[in-house]
Design goal:
Helix content is about 85%, strand content about 0%. The protein is mostly helical and about 170 residues long.
């Protein structure tokens, strides 16, 4: 396989991590945001002050976009430096991205319930943050796993020799 193709496939893993994390964040913040709007509506109907903290709850699933971006930057950099590991980069990006996706999506569901409860009672904010933190931990573990499975840097001469060996085998 050509070196440029290996780089492209490896980099695709990084792009998947960022894209899937962002899609999950969109679902999560959309779900939580809709719940925050509903809670504010109830507050307005009951002539109660609308809690601004619902904005924080609605935005918490955005962090998976950041984790996906960190994974993307790591994977893309490694894929360019060590294209022979393209399959690892592709798979790790795929699985990291899906972990970010589901974490953000389900964090949005927990945030939606938290918005509803906090909007009605104006109590329990710290408890809701703790529940959201538990879901967040799954996303952090996926990012840490991604970092840990990345191959270590090799000397440029070794990398060039490996690239040449791969190129000669491909021919």
């Amino acid at each position: 396989m050509e070196v440029e193709m290996m780089k492209a496939l490896g980099m695709a893993g990084g792009f998947m991590a960022a894209a899937l994390g962002s899609m999950g964040s969109s679902l999560g913040t959309g779900t939580a945001g809709a719940s925050a709007v509903g809670a504010w509506k109830k507050c307005y109907q009951q002539d109660k002050p609308a809690p601004f903290l619902l904005t924080a709850l609605a935005g918490i699933p955005l962090s998976q976009t950041i984790y996906g971006m960190v994974a993307m930057l790591l994977i893309v950099g490694k894929a360019q430096a060590m294209p022979q590991y393209w399959a690892l980069f592709l798979l790790v990006g795929f699985f990291c991205g899906w972990a970010q996706f589901f974490s953000a999506w389900y964090q949005g569901k927990v945030a939606a319930g938290s918005c509803n409860a906090f909007g009605e009672t104006n109590q329990g904010f710290a408890n809701y943050i703790m529940a959201l933190g538990i879901v967040e931990t799954c996303a952090l573990f996926a990012l840490i796993f991604t970092i840990l499975v990345m191959p270590k840097e090799v000397a440029p001469a070794v990398a060039e020799a490996a690239a040449e060996a791969v190129k000669s085998v491909a021919q």
